[in-house]
Write the structure tokens for this entry.
Amino acid sequence: MTVRTRFAPSPTGYVHVGSVRTALYCYLFARHHGGQYLLRIEDTDQTRFVEGAVENLLMVMKKLGIQHDEGPDCGGSKGPYYQSQRLDIYQDKIKILLDNHHAYPCFCTADRLDKMRAEQTLLGLPPKYDGHCKTLSPEEISEKLAKEPYVIRLKVPDSGQVVVDDLIRGKVGFQVNTVDDQVLIKSDGFPTYHFANVVDDHEMEITHVIRGEEWLSSTPKHLLLYQFFGWDAPKFAHLPLLLNPDKSKLSKRQGDVAVEDFLQAGYFEEALLNFLSLLGWHPSDNREIFSVAELIQEFSLERVSKSGAVFDREKLDWMNAQYLKSRISWERYLSLIMPQIPAEAHEVLGETRLLKALEAVRPNLDKPQDILQHIPIFTTRPEDFDLSSAEIQEILKIESNSQLFLALKDLLASGAENLSADDFKEHLKTIQKEHKIKGKALFMPVRVAVSGVVHGPDLAQFAEVMGRDELIRRLELALTRLG
């Protein structure tokens, strides 16, 4: 059996991160099993359609790299399936249910339904259609069909149980007397989500329906439809909710949940997918950083949790930083960092030294804007160092500083003119061996003397950017300050 999954969003606005998590799991599961992943736009509710929503969805999915495998031809590429273009299929299928008495027309007005629900609420009952039109005679139905608007409802049995055998939650039973006579075809002739969803999943040979936990309570309706049609049902897997830190359901009211917002804020597509993949699923080891290819290899529904997953922005920030530090290409890194660099840095350092400086500080950045905190380390003149902090003053009081600075200055003067990071490391090793200066007494004074700060980029890389002659000048100035 070829595994086939689908992501089936409604075009009602922005792309929610929870929707992308669902799409990602569908995509990973299909790819893991060598199957196909489909995209289907469930646009039968025309009252909720938002102009541009589909185009925005396709743009987001393309950026994220979650590309569907098949669909109608759109000028050489495969577009998504649209339910609004499949109305003839639903009309053919509803006739089968009507002919076999598994569905019936309902002529109840909106006013009657509102009063019915209000009365049920007052009595503490769950809102549910009362079956008023279920017992109409064939003659009454024929008479009403000719002159009254109507919908078509699912004819749910009066008793029994429907069991959902969920791949994540196990067997979940529902008494059919709690299942509503769901509207299948609306008065405008369009199918409802529940009806079109089942028909399309069957017609498209979907083998696994992977969707959010909120759809679990609707699954009995879907299974009854499969049963009434005589179709084999797909396997179901209902994913845990995404939660705010206070454990409420993730919503727009408590912050950004639109994927577009995260991408515009500078989060990497790869980092966002990596982060979302771990919201409900855990790998076989303790790894946290995965490429999409690695996720495809590792992913399984057996490792998806039943409990909700907290959308932790601090963890997302951390993960995004890991990509900035080492996971994205050098070219992409530069494209993000260069626009942040002030003109002064270009003038002082020149292109070659600036590139070396950007390489040196990369492990210290959490976001591109952080470069503004680190570039001054390379451009500030030693005469302008601020050495007034208590921490720096303590470092400058270390007894071996004069011996250290003199020894390093002499090694630099006798060494290669084009100083490399490795050359500088060797000089420090020589001092450790010959002068027995090591640890904090070695590295901290040297860092303060040549950079004016206690914390910064890798010291050897910084030294290479500054160059031999400038380091010598800075050490001589440091010796003067020591008196």
User: Anything to note?
Assistant: The chain has a mean pLDDT of 93. Residues 4-74+242-314 form a domain with the Rossmann fold fold (CATH 3.40.50.620). The chain has 21 helices and 14 strands.
